[in-house]
Amino acid sequence: MRDTRESRLLLVLLIAIAFALITVDIRAGEESPVDGARQAAAAVFGPVEKSVATAVDPVANAIGAVRDSGERHNRIATLERENAALKAKLGSDDQTRSRIHELDEMLKRAGAGQYGIKGAEVIAIGAAQGFSWTVTIDAGSKDGIERDMTVLNGEGLVGRVATVGPDTATVVLANDPDFTVGTRLEKTGELGFATGQGDRALSVQMLNGKAKVSPGDRLVTFGSRGNKPFVPGVPIGEVVKVDPSRGDLTRTIWVRPFVGFSRLDIVGVVVMPPREDPRDAVLPPKPEVKPTPTVTVTVTPSPSASVPGKPADE
Fold first, then answer.
1. pTM for the structure as a whole
2. How many Cβ atoms from other residues are within 10 Å of residue 177's Cβ?
3. Cβ contacts of residue 219 below 8 Å, gap of 6+?
4. Greatest C-alpha distance within the chain
5. How many CB atoms lie within 10 A of CB 73?
6. What is the CA radius of gyration of the chain?
7. pLDDT (tens digit, 0 to 9) for every residue of the chain, 314 residues total?
8. Running DSSP on this structure, what letter comes out for residue 181?
9. Do 125 and 134 meet the contact criterion of CB atoms below 8 Å apart?
10. How far is CA 270 from each of CA 111, 166, 273, 274, rounded to the nearest angstrom?
11. Planar angle of CA 207, 211, 216, nearest 5 degrees
């Protein structure tokens, strides 16, 4: 088209008409008089636009993928961190379940013996105040803990309180070489004194040299005057060896403690002794020993076997 005076007037007129239609369309809203024309145009040009969009989409998606790759990488890293945190949480949940089980067993022992206990957590282990086998617990005088109180857990006797601070206390363990506790044999009531031997079995001197003791027999604490340092009835351990009797006044036996001193975690300090001696009530029931089945073999003589005094071919 040539640039003439008529063409310029036509262009100005078309622009003016376009602005007028836009103005009318905006002011009329949904009742716009050009809505029909718009729908007709959409019906004509819509398929063309869709075809163009379909052709362009793969390219646009590729560009978007490149643009979002950094965000996806960050998201993957976040998910990996969340998975690691979840695994750690599962591990801590296992530990929590284990500690809940320990606490539950300790409460069962305390309930069976009617002991009033103060729960505590072992926060340190090692030598302290000259003792070779000790632990530190997170309970002290502010919690009602006093010196020479019995300490137990869900397995049995842990030790006794040796020193007390405002917020912590030191416990001498039952396997300490300087540790001694009075014992009573299950059922028979035979008395003795157990002494710690470090990481070995406890040494127990039975007061009766002729006492009948067998491996598998169990011992509990005899108790002290005034229930300090030991309350009665706390499980100590199981007999694993009995020295032969030589006619002495006493007899030595060896007892494996119920408590695993190297894995202490939750313990209880007996702050209120029982009203009466629980005797063997705190000991858990012994597992039932199933009898070993006896196999009987019957031998039946063969019909072809030879009879004495008679020829084999007869």
1. 0.64
2. 13
3. 183, 184, 185, 186, 192, 194, 204, 235, 236, 237, 238, 239, 255
4. 153
5. 10
6. 44
7. 555 666 667 766 777 676 666 665 555 555 556 555 545 544 444 444 445 444 544 544 544 544 455 555 676 677 667 666 656 655 567 778 888 888 999 999 999 999 999 999 999 987 545 557 999 999 999 999 999 999 999 999 999 999 999 999 999 999 999 999 999 999 999 999 999 999 899 999 999 988 899 999 999 999 999 999 999 999 999 999 998 877 777 889 999 999 999 899 999 999 999 999 999 999 988 877 666 666 666 666 656 555 555 554 54
8. E
9. yes
10. 12, 17, 7, 9
11. 110
Q: Residue type for 172, please?
A: V
**306 CB-near residues (< 8 Å, 6+ apart):** 312
Sequence letter at residue 104:
D
Burial of 304 from C-beta contacts in 10 A (0-12 / 13-18 / 19+): exposed
